[in-house]
Amino acid sequence: MKIRDIVNRDIVTLTNCEHEPIHIPGKIQPHGFLLGITQEWKIDFCTENISAYFDLLHTQALGKEFATVFGATAEAEIVAYIKGDEVEDAFPLEIELLGRLFQINVHKSSSIYVLEAELLFPDREKLADAYKQTIQFVSQMNKTRSLKDLCALVAKGTREITGYDRVMIYRFDEQYNGEVFAEDCREDLEPFLGLHYPHTDIPPQARELYIKNQLRLIVDVNYEPVPIFTVDDKEGKNLDLSLSILRSTSPIHVEYLKNMGVGATLTISLIHHNRLWGLIACHHYSEKNISPEIRLAAKLQGQFITSQIDIRQSNDEYINAQKTILALEQLTALDLQQSLETIVAAPQLLEICNASGVSIVSKNKVYKNGLTPTEPEIYELIEEISASSITEIFSTNKISDHFPKFAENSNVAGIIYHSLGNNDHIIWYRPETISEINWGGDPEKSIVKDHNGLHPRNSFNIWKQIVKNQSSVWRSYEINAAAQYAHTLHNQLILIMLSEEEEKYRNQSEILKETNSELENINWISTHDLQEPLRKIQLITSKMLSEIDVISIESISSSLERVSKSANRMSGLLEDILKYTRIKNTRDTLQEVNLNEILDSTLKEMNEVIAETNAVIEAEKLPEVHAIGFLMKQLFANIIQNSLKYASPERTPKIKITASPEPVIMNHLYKVHCHWVRFSDNGIGFESQYSEAIFKIFTRLHNQEQYTGSGIGLALCKKIMQAVGGDIHAEGKLGQGTDIILYFPCDPEDTLIPV
C-alpha cells in the first residue's frame, strides 16, 4: 500500500495571495490529531502525530478498519454521537481511545467523516460555571441601550470567561475594512480601540471560512504544522478542512500574528443577515488553550451580539429618526397651496434628511435654501444626472465617484436626488466632511514582498489617513424620508400647476369681461362723445353756408375757431382710444427699468407745461423694476398731466414722488414682495368713494366745461400697470389733493393679485 502526505506546497505570490487555498492546507496544529474515516469506517486520512498519543504510527493506522485499531466499542460510541441530535452535537464527544481520555469533534467533509481529537482537559471548567457566567451576562446585557455599549460589555464578558489578554469586537465596513469597535485588555497593553485595518488583513477566502466555521483557535503561533497522510489510491486526493478545529493556519497569517507579538488567538465569527458583520478577536501573548465549555460560552457571546444588531442599531438611530419623522409630518401638514418660495424656506425641508442645503427646480426656475451649489452648477448637475442611467432616485456621500467634473468646483460632496416629473427636480446637499482615520499600520503596505517572498507588514504603528471629498453617510431613514416628501411634493406641484391654470383662466375671464365692458364703453363714446362735436361742426358749417352772403369776417373767424375746437376734441379722443386699445399683456418682454431715468426723461419733455403752471415737482430715489420703458414713460406723463390738470386754483401745484427703499410685503394687499411708488399732489382731490371708479374708462368726476379730457387717462394708467403685472391705487381728499400709488412685483413671473 502506497502512502503520501497531502501538504499543499503551492507558492503564494502577489497575484494569487487572495486565492490561497487555506481550506486544504494538508496539515493541522499539533495540540490534537486527525483521522479521516470512510463510509465503510476505514481510516483513509491520518496525521503524522498520532504516534505522540499512542504507540502507533500513521502508516500502521492508514487503510485499517477503525474498529481494528481503536476497538468496536469506540466505533459504536462515535456512530451514536454522529446520529445524535443538534443539542448533543454542540459538545465534543468524551471518549476513551486505547486507554486515554479524549474529546473529539466530528464533521463531514464530502464523503469523509473527519474526527479531530484533543486530550480531555483535566481541570476544565464545568458547564454549570459557564452557564452561571452566561446568565450574569444576559442580565447586564439588558441594561445596555446602544450597540456600542453592548459590544463593550461582550468584550469585557468574553475576556472574563476566556482569560485572554485582549478581546476586541472587530466590525467590518462595506469594503471589509475593519475597525476595533470595542475592546477590553490588560491595563499594561496599548489599546487598539478605534484603530482601522485594511480589508487585505482578512482576504476573501478567509472571510468565507469564518462564515462556514464560526470558531477558530490557534493555541500556539510558534507551532510546527503536522502533515496529514492518506492512502495514495487516487490522483489529486485531498481533504477539505473548512470546518476543522485543528486546521493549520496560513503561514502569512501566522507571521502577521508573530509581528504583532501575539502568542495565541481565539476568533468567533459574527454573522448578520448571512454576511460577516465582524469578529470577536481574542489575543493572548503566550500560548493558550481553552476547554470546549469555555469555547461554547465564548461562541454564545458572539450570538448575543448578532441577535441584537438590528435592535441596537434601530435604538441608536431612533432619536434621529424621530426628529426626521416629526419634520416630515410638519412639512406635509403645510398648506398645499403654499408657494415654492415658502416651501423651500421651511426649516423642516432640511431636517427631514439632516441636509445642509436643498434646491427645487420647477419650470426652469431654481428655489434654494442653505448650503447649495450656484444655479448654473445645479443645472449642470441635473444635466449630468439626466445623461447617466439614473432615472428618478439617486443618493451618494461621495459625488466625485459619480460626477467628477461637477465635483471639481462644487462645495458639496453628498446629495439625495429625486425627479419630480415634468422636468422638475429636488436635491438635498451635504458638504464635505474631512475625517481622520487611524489605521493599525499603513494599509497600502499590508503585504510586503522581498527576496524571500511575501510577508505581512511588521509595523503596526498608528498611521493616520485624512479622508476628503465625501460627506457623512446618508442613513436609510433619511433617504426614506426624502423619498416620501419627494412624492408629496410631486403631488403638490401638480396641485400648484392646476391652481395656476385655474388662476390663469380666471384672469383671462376677468380680462375678457373687462374687454367686453371696454367695447361697450367705446361703442357708447363713439355714438355719444364723438357725435356731439361732430354735430357742432355740422351745425356751424351749415349756418355759415346758409349765410355766406351776409356773414361778417368776425363771425366767420369765430365759427371756424369753434369748428377747430370740436375737431381737436375729436382728434384727442380718437388718439386716446387708439393708445388704450394698443396696450396688451406684454409680460414676456419685461426688462429691468430704472424709474429715475424714466422720470428725468418725462420731466424734460413736459418742461414747458410744468413751467406754464409754475408747478413744483420733488422726487426721491426710485427703484429699478421689471417693466417696459416707453409704457413707464407714458404712465408717468399721464399721472403728472392729471395732477396739473386738476390743480387747485388757490395754490401753486406741487407734486411729491416717493418710493419704498427696499422690497416690501404689503400683507393687507398682496402675498408677494413688491416695490411701491407714490405720486402725491395738492390739487382739488376727490371723495374717497370714487377711488376705484376713476380708473374706469371714460369715467369723469367733473363736467367737460370745468375740466377737459376724454376720461381715458387713469384707465390707461391702470391698463399699463396690469400689462407689467403690477397694480395701481388712488387715495383722495376733496379739496386737499390726490395720491396715486403704483405697485410693481419684484419677481417678473409674479402678478399682483389682491388678497
What does this structure look like?
The structure is a single chain. By secondary structure, the chain is an alpha+beta fold. The protein contains 20 helices and 31 strands. α5 (127-141) packs parallel to α9 (292-332) and α17 (595-605) crosses α19. The strands form seven sheets. Strands 1, 2, 3, 4, 5, 6, 7 and 12 form an eight-stranded antiparallel sheet that branches. The radius of gyration is 47 Å and the shape is rod-shaped.
Main β-sheet: number of strands, strand sense, barrel status?
A: 8 strands, antiparallel
Which architecture of the largest domain would the CATH scheme give at its second level?
2-Layer Sandwich
Q: Please state roughly what percent of the residues sit in beta strands, choosing from under 5%, 5-15%, 15-25%, 25-35%, 35-45% or over 45%.
A: 15-25%
* CATH H-tier superfamily of the largest domain: Histidine kinase-like ATPase, C-terminal domain
Number of strands: 31
CATH topology of the largest domain: Heat Shock Protein 90
**Ends apart, CA distance between termini:** 105 Å
Number of domains: 4
Coarse shape: rod-shaped
Mean pLDDT: 80
What is the number of helices? Answer: 20
Q: Strand pairing plus helix content: what structural class?
A: alpha+beta
Q: Uncertain regions: pLDDT < 50 for 5+ in a row?
A: 439-457, 698-710
CATH class categorisation of the largest domain:
Alpha Beta
Please state the CA-atom Rg, rounded to the nearest Å.
47 Å
Percent of residues in helices comes to 25-40%
